[in-house]
Amino acid sequence: MARSNDRAPRHADLHKPIRLLDEADIPALLAQHKDPLILVLDGVQDPHNLGACLRTADCAGCAFVVTTRKNSSPVNDTVRKVAVGAAEHMPIVQANNLRNALVKLKDGGVWIAGTSDHKTSQSLYTAKLTGPLAIVMGAEGDGIRHLTAETCDFLVRIPMLGAVPCLNVSVSAGVCLFEAVRQRGHR
């Protein structure tokens, strides 16, 4: 259900500074949260998808979002408009090396759940998504990269019941993040 104040960002919002960080900032970000929920985007290239993912991450109470500096959409005006203010409020880590960023998260006590339809993936609805957790979403079409999947602690999949084999990355992010929110007792 959409909030009653769901609106496009004011023109002035598009000129507020954005917190673009790098993987060296991850330990300080983690220190600010007891059981952070983090969204990691592995090469999301469409600015509309990136904006929608940022918006969803903000609505789900994510501590921050990690994306890749290369092979990802930049945080441009389109992203900011679609994010409806989330780009200005959500810390965004642009990792030079996603594997290194995931290792920093692990070193900080965060479990890494990758999304994949691999045969070893467990259902999203049976996976434990509480405690410090990062959920990794892959790029449009390709999903998460092989090295990224190997770095994850476990893999989850959203059960697909129809003829279409996958969801849009921003929709998948919403399903996964809000299942974590549900498991954490936020109703």
Query: What structural class do you assign from the helix and strand content?
Result: alpha/beta
* Main β-sheet, spatial strand arrangement: 1-4-3-2-7-5-8-6
**Looking at the structure, what is the overall shape?**
globular
| Uncertain residue segments | 1-5
Report on this model:
The chain is an alpha/beta fold. The protein has a single domain, classed as Alpha/beta knot. Helices cover 33% and strands 18% of the residues. It contains 7 helices and 8 strands, in the order βαβαβααβαβββαβα. The chain has helices at residues 26-31, 47-59, 77-83, 86-89, 98-107, 146-151, 169-183, and strands at residues 20-21, 37-42, 64-68, 92-95, 111-115, 122-123, 133-138, 154-157. It has an 8-stranded parallel β-sheet with strand order 1-4-3-2-7-5-8-6, sandwiched between helices. β2, α2 (47-59) and β3 (64-68) form a beta-alpha-beta unit. α2 runs parallel beside α3 and α2 packs parallel to α7. The longest helix has 15 residues, at 169-183.
What is this entry, summarized?
This protein is α/β, with parallel strands linked by helices and 187 residues long. The protein contains seven helices and eight strands.
